[in-house]
Amino acid sequence: MVFALVSLSACSWFGSKKHAVPDPSEIIVNGAPAGSTVFIDRRQAGPPAVAGDRPQMIRVRAGDHTVEIHVDDKIVYREDTYVGQGETRAVTVLSGLTR
Question: Which range marks the domain in which residue 71 is found?
Answer without folding.
Answer: 21-92
